[in-house]
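We treat protein structure as text, and this decision shapes the records that our systems exchange. Because each token names a local backbone shape, the row as a whole describes the fold. An entry from our holdings is shown next, in its original layout:
>
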Amino acid sequence: MPSKSALRLPLIRLALAGTSALALVATAQAQEAEQETASNGDSTALETLVVNGSGGVITADGYVGISSATGAKIDTPFLETPQSISTVTEQQLKDRNPQTLLETLAYTPGTRVGAYGFDPRFDAFFVRGFDVTFTGIFRDNLRQPAAVDSVFKNEPYGLEGVSILRGPSSALYGATGAGGLYNLITKRPTEDALREVQLQYGNHDRYQGQFDFSGPVNETDPVYYRLTGLLRDADTEQVGVADDRAYIAPAFTWKPDEDTKLTVLGEYSRTKTGGTATYYNDPFTGEVTDIFAGNPDFNDSIQKQGRIGYEFEHRLNDTFVFRQNARISTLNIDADWDFAYAPNADDPTLLDSSAGTYDERLTAFVIDNQLEAKFDTGAIEHTLLAGLDYTKLRFRALDGRGVSPPLDTKNPTQGRPVDAIDFNTRTVQDQWQVGTYLQDQIRYDAWTLTVGGRYDWVSTDTDTTDLTTETLTSVSQKDKEFSGRVGLTYQTDFGLAPYISYSTAFTPNAGLNQETKQPFKPTESEQQEIGVKYLLPNSNTLITAALFNIDQKNGLYFEADGVTNIQVQRGKLRSRGFEIEANTSLDNGLSLIASYAYTDVKIIQGPEGTIGNYVSSAPQHMASIWAHYTLPEDGLFSGLSVGGGARFVGSSYSNDENTSKNSSRVLFDASIGYDFAAIDQKYEGLHLQVNATNLFDRREAVCTAGYCHRDQGRTVIGSLRYNW
């Protein structure tokens, strides 16, 4: 059914990536970067967003990320990372107050977040023209797997930041996609006390309360805690589609000495939304209407998910550091959906509908072992990283299809009772992945050569049972592949760092090709990239630019006929483009992020009628700018802060046949805040903030893979926050 559709598959797709872990403590290179920034006259001290654990580290000053472990699994300054990398810092999250992962990423270059319009069910997005929903999401640098509708929900309030590595990145991370990876960094315990409570109210009857507490457990033991949570009751712009959530995330860190630390991270959430959220598409004109295609009486989707894991790090001596990171996560989604797809033959004011129900469970265990060694060979410095990781995943899906009463276009919001639907099929899939990797960062004078390689073994067993006939179909497949990366950077004394790199990626695809009745071939990709990064002297400003060419073969995509969807395999895609990004946070209270991306992604080999065409919903031009300004403390408007942003999305084709187009558009966002301490110090810690997304309520059509949606309308959220 088309809308659900854009993500739901009739067969199972588990695109796993090799799991990995990041170092916690900033390395000597990050410390040098900090000292250099200080020596350049920047009076604002750098912050390490992640201060405990080894799942990730972003050293940042306001909006400006300086170093991250995402690019090399070892904390490395951006100027030495031979690949395009970006961050969404903690300060950005506070100023923009995003409510979804898509809003969190909306201002990062090359990231396409609106291809499916309004849809609170999935965090579905693209980068450099490639879908990264199933292959590109990492949590604390361990793979966050997904399958069919079992896509983990990501709560922005539970994040310290996001670190983004663009382009194929399998040399360390295993089975990832062509677009890159997005590492979501969980809030961790802080050594200093942190206490925050917040109340939010927004349009569509949105009510939310949240809290964040952290600090030492007591004054004597080296144990620290963090507890983050929220409770939300909310409607949306679509009748019958809720956006309710309960979220709790406890964390503990034990640090018995400077050489050892253990961090335990947990999470549980329950989210209620709709089984479908789409608008009805007129089958004769192909245009999207304002009619909700679903059924308020048969449209609940309840997702429960939990995770528990640990990050362990121990320095053996001056040369070696051992790390082990592990997590088990589970997800259960139980949903009903009803979808109107065509006018009734006898009465065109009625729309024929079909309905279905599904129950999916996804359980994944990931563990990554690393050994880091620092040593010199003459004048050459080495940072050598060796690792072995393992992933075990089980996915079970029950699916049923039935009939439902037609939708009355004269009263489209009226509910329609649907009889209980029995399950028709059961699918169980087990997948194992083992990967071993080796990387050396070789530094000589101002040069850094990064060389890495990895080998993966993947085994997948899939059993599908037709419950009406008890017919069992079993498919087994084994995949193995080598991936590599080589990159060279040169860092000048004045902050300019050009680089060049070559990298590859490998993604085993589970499931069955409906066209050939054979298992899918692995998806493979390779990238050539050349770029430059510039950390301006005497200014907290980072500018990066990159030219890239990516070739992908055997990628999976959706083929829709208006009623059903199947997953098929396209021969080859090619993406070429240019990206530029600037981040700054100045002493005068102004912070700014700006980016532009040109992406030319074409079908080189594929179905008849699409060869040489552009990939649907992949705009060639995207640009964005966000600025936030805190007015001077001694001025007339002391305590006031204002922010505003604009996101330009260029035109794109609505289908792979390139027969129609999505129009270009500009979406505006805004914020205003007030610190009550400006009135009197007795109000210190009390802060009011209002954020508006899509300020002018543009709700134009956006079509992807031949099916059309509408942009999400205006949302306005007021927040009253108190810190003490």
